[in-house]
Amino acid sequence: MQVLVRDNNIDQALRVLKKKMQREGVFREMKARRSYEKPSEKRGREKAEAIRRSRKAARKLAIREGLIAGPPKKPRPDARSTPRPQA
C-alpha cells in the first residue's frame, strides 16, 4: 500500500492511508486476530456477513428496478450561491 505525501502535508496523507486501510479491511482483521475465534463462531459470523451482503445486494437491485423507494436524496448546496469570505 502506498500513499503520496503532497506539499509535506502528512495529516492529509495519514487520512488517505487510514481510509485505504479501512477499505482493505486491515482494521477488521487486526481486531479479529487479537483473540482466538472458535470455528463455530467463525462460521456463524461468516454466515451472518453473507446474509447481510445478499440482503444489501437485493435491496440495491430492488431500488434500481423501482420496486422500492430509495433513500431520500440530500439537497446539494449550490456552489455559486454560497458567499465566500473575502481575505
UniProtKB/TrEMBL annotation:
Residues 30-87 are annotated as: Disordered. GO terms for molecular function: structural constituent of ribosome. One of its GO terms (biological process) is translation. It comes from the Bacteria. Keywords: Ribonucleoprotein, Ribosomal protein. Coiled coil: none annotated. Residues 30-52 have a biased composition (Basic and acidic residues). GO terms for cellular component: ribonucleoprotein complex; ribosome. InterPro entries: Ribosomal_bS21, Ribosomal_bS21_sf. PANTHER family: MITOCHONDRIAL 28S RIBOSOMAL PROTEIN S21 (PTHR21109), SMALL RIBOSOMAL SUBUNIT PROTEIN BS21M (PTHR21109:SF0). Belongs to the bacterial ribosomal protein bS21 family. NCBIfam families: S21p (TIGR00030). This is Small ribosomal subunit protein bS21. The lineage of its organism: Bacteria, Pseudomonadati, Pseudomonadota, Alphaproteobacteria, Hyphomicrobiales.
